[in-house]
Amino acid sequence: MEYTEDDVTPAGSGDVSSQTDSALADHETTEDPQNYAESETLADTADTETDVADDGVDDEAKPHTPGRLPVPVHYADRQTPRRRRREDLFQALFCVFGIAATWAIGVFANATTQGVTEDVLRFRFIREILLLPITLVEGSVVLIAPIAIVVALALRRRISAIAHSVGTAIVAVLVGWALLWATSLLPDDITAPLRVAKAVALLGNTTSTALGINLIVITLCAMFTVAGEMQNMRTVRWAWIGLWVIVFLGVMRSSMTLPSAFISVFIGRIVGSIARWFFGFEDRRASGTDIVSALLDLGLVPVRVVRTDLDTSSEPLSAWSIIEDSRGRLHIQSRDVQTVEYTVNRRPDVDENRHYQVWTVDDQLYEVVALDPGREIVGTLVDVWNNVRLRGISRWISPSLKATTERATLTSLAARKAGVHTPDVAGIAQAGESFISVSQALPPTAPLTSFEADQISDAMLDEAWTQLRAAHRSGISHRDLSQDAVLLDDRGELWIVDWQKGEVATTELNRRIDIAQMLVLLSLAAGSERALESARRTVAPEVLTSCAAVLQEPVLPTSVRQNVRRTDLTENLRAQLMGVESDDEVELTDLQRFRPRTVIMVAVLFTALVVVLGSMNFEDITTAVTQANPWWMVLSFGLACLTWVGGAIPLMALSPVKLRFWEALTAQIGASIATIVAPAGVGPAVVNLRLLKKKKVGTVVAATTVTLQQLIQLAFILLFLLIAMVLNGSSFSVQLPYGTILAVVVVVIAVIAALLSIPQFRKWMWSKIEPTWTQVHPRLIWIVGQPQRLLAILGGNVLMNVGFIGAFWAALAAMGGSMNLLSLALTYLASNSLGSVIPSPGGIGPVEATLTAGLQVAGVPLSIGLPTAVLYRLVTFYGRIPFGWLAMKYMERKDLL
Questions:
Q1: pLDDT tens for residues 857-896?
Q2: Mean pLDDT in runs of 10 for the chain (897 residues)?
């Protein structure tokens, strides 16, 4: 049996043509975006009858009044007896978070004491008396529950479910043993919440402890999870009740701690959920008989029901007949039928619901949307995330399929009554565990954005605005005007569909967001100029102006946002709506409670705390601070603060736009915290780049400026290092092997010369250097022609190096050490540069080690060198973190970051 779909031809481009393939033959599906036609092949099957029912039972549970189904219903769909549900993966992920949270709470709230164990030992006789009935209850549950579940599954002829349950239980035992062994390797302080006294758990006389993770609980949880769901099987429901009784009694008699009891349940659920996802869960969605029975309940008598949202080019649909027996019960059977053709308006799979097209006995055409269980968690999580992330446009949330269906139906009916061209809803009904929404079928349609701009007339654009304004006048908003929500049929009429996320009694903000979404959508379809002209013809000027502030990517549907990303469409639309030259002059409404940069800021702070607190040796720091001269410490910190000024002056000189001194200085202070999560030199560059971009400097020019500043700083460090080496000469306290150094330099020069003589190497080297040189060269020429800027760059870099070297000198003096200033400068520059080469966040570790080693090489004893290095890092790195955080928050508040 074969079903084919007609090609959808845009209005004015020709007649609607149909394509027909031979029965059960391979065929190709057109990829034209204006063509939703797709041949749907239905595989003919044998003449045997196949009853479809829950749990493998004959489908005798669909009774209704006899005689309501005069002819067999031809049903076309793709049946999957088992399917993988994302809900199972979400449950496993939730249990992982549950384990982490329970363990963390247990670590901080552990109150187990030796006295409790001694009290238990003192009343052991009473405990053994009470233990007898408790053990009897636990043993009964452990023995009877698994047997009862296996028997129940066998009676339902679910042999595969029995195999899956038993196999998962075996895997759960192995996983539990592995986790017990791995947990036993952890320190006792970490596993304290999971430990119980052996005197209680094993009826011994010892006061030692053992892990309270229960293998029986893990195994039973995994088995019950795979066996079925509580709402579908009474046996499973009672088994879970018995399991929770075991857990409660185990906690009460201290064979498990409360954290170990919950963690045991979570582990079992994780194993069971992953196994259920791997094996696939028995499909409990509405079957063909469920859908036909629901249609009959709505007073619609179907003759054909065809699935319309599946791609059948590679895998055909299957065909069945649904008949009614003399008792009014529905059965589904497959049998040979002749090949026929039906025109189906294929729906794109955009909402993960099932879509069907239904023909009735009175030649009416309907579309049926089946909302299936198992989608509630995913949809609810998305809605919760949007409500948390966005301000002022929160959506009503309910995990109930029935409530969701009723709300969508109410919005769609209200929109149609308001004058919107949308399919009329015939009714909603429950079909098995699913809910179906029945509406009049759309004629052959295609998304407005799939047509060429010259095929879309101004009247079509105006009609889109007219319908949207009609909904707004009745207090209805759509809130999801995606590319599949605005359609054109073969007669050129415009439809606005998919009102599932709409809202009645809506707010003014939601109306403005609708207008912004429609403006962007029409701009994608016909161009921004025509979209704006159409909007101005049909929408009041003050309304259009008010929507400019909410025309932002976060409020756009996903499909639209993907198309406008990395374009300046939204910026241009905002500027044109407000009549300004630049989008920067438009003040946006703050719709996001937090932005990516806020998340980054929190992540930076958290990482900073973890990295710094985890790497700091508080004993060494305490020793260094208590032994140091406080006046030299203050001087060291003051000299370190000069580096902020030294970094701000060159940035002002290199900037193509005028920067205020306090803005550049705040950026340098803020960079103090950015250095924590980035290698040396990278953190300040990122902050400076953001500041320049906020000052309306182009991305390329800003990147060039920051790159040039970094190169100049590197050049000055090398220059100071060279000067220090030359001036030191023989006065350096350590005798350097100058002969060896000279030989190494000669060898390095010879190797570089040999490599440069190879054309391929020169070409490769230039390919790496050319992009940077191309950017930097024009800026260098610009700088050379302005002596004042050159002096500012020179002075700022000198001040920065003087600040760092001075802070190091004062730190050494604070610890009672002394050293020749030139030797100290050479030691600092060489050691700090070597430590910064190692790519660790903020140079934590390598810088301290190289500074200490450098001082030792220079003749400073370790007892002074190590505290000096620690004190120097305290005033130039660790101690700057609070100031950097405050500066970053200030820049964020002033929109400088």
A1: 888 887 788 788 888 888 888 888 888 888 888 888 887 8
A2: 37 32 31 36 36 37 61 84 73 88 71 44 51 71 86 83 88 90 81 69 57 86 84 81 84 77 91 87 77 90 88 78 84 66 60 85 90 64 66 64 85 93 91 88 88 92 94 92 90 90 87 93 92 92 87 85 82 82 62 61 54 54 70 89 90 86 89 69 77 78 80 82 70 50 68 80 77 70 78 89 90 84 81 67 70 81 80 84 86 80
State how beta strands 302-307 and 73-77 pair.
Answer: parallel
- Please answer whether residues 272 and 223 qualify as being in contact, where contact means their C-beta atoms are separated by less than 8 angstroms: yes
Distance CA 205, CA 763 (A): 80
- Determine the residue type at 591: L
Q: Which candidate, 335, 345, 131, places its Cα nearest to that of 249?
A: 131
Which pLDDT value is given to residue 47?
34
Contacting residues for 447 by C-beta, under 8 A, at least 6 apart: 33, 483, 484, 486, 487, 488
pLDDT value of residue 6: 37
What separation in angstroms does the CA of 681 have from each of 47, 156, 438, 876?
76, 68, 63, 14
Q: Under a CB-based contact definition with an 8 Å cutoff, are residues 640 and 875 in contact?
A: yes
Judging by DSSP bridges, how do beta strands 330-333 and 476-477 pair with one another?
A: unpaired
DSSP letters, 163-220, are: HHHHHHHHHHHHHHHHHHHHHHTS-HHHHGGGEEEHHHHS--S---EEE---HHHHHH
Cα distances from 791 to residues 692, 702, 788, 795, 802, in angstroms, run 21, 21, 5, 6, 16
* Cβ neighbours around 771 below 10 Å, total: 10
Query: How much is the mean pLDDT over the chain?
Result: 76
**Closest to 574 (Cα-Cα) out of 524, 514, 528, 538:** 528
pLDDT at 788: 84
Dig out the tokens for 554 from the structure: 């976060």
3-state secondary structure 55-121: HHCCCCCCECCCCCCCCCEEEEECCCCEECCHHHHHHHHHHHHHHHHHHHHHHHCCCCCHHHHHHHH
Q: How does pLDDT run across 93-135, given as a tens digit for each residue? A: 889 988 888 887 776 655 443 444 444 445 455 455 556 666 7
d(C-alpha 858, C-alpha 830), whole Å: 12
Q: What is the dihedral of CA 890, 893, 896, 897, to 10 degrees?
A: 90
Output the pLDDT for position 468.
94
Query: How far apart are alpha carbons 210 and 207 in whole angstroms?
Result: 10
Residue 844 CA, chain-centre distance (Å), reads 30
Amino acid making up residue 752: I
Domain extent listing, the chain = 2-81+283-372, 83-282, 447-585, 597-607+620-732+787-893
Give 577's contacts (C-beta < 8 A, 6+ positions apart): 532, 544, 545, 547, 548, 551
Instruction: For residues 362 and 58, give the distance between their C-alpha atoms in angstroms, rounded to a whole number.
Output: 31
pLDDT score recorded for residue 270: 93
- Please give the sequence-ordered ranges of beta strands (E in DSSP) within 590-635, or none if there are none: none
User: Could you tell me which of 504, 883, 489, 373 has the C-alpha nearest to residue 669?
Assistant: 883
Quote the Cα angle for 805-810-815, to 5°.
130
CATH architecture, domain 447-585 = Orthogonal Bundle (1.10)
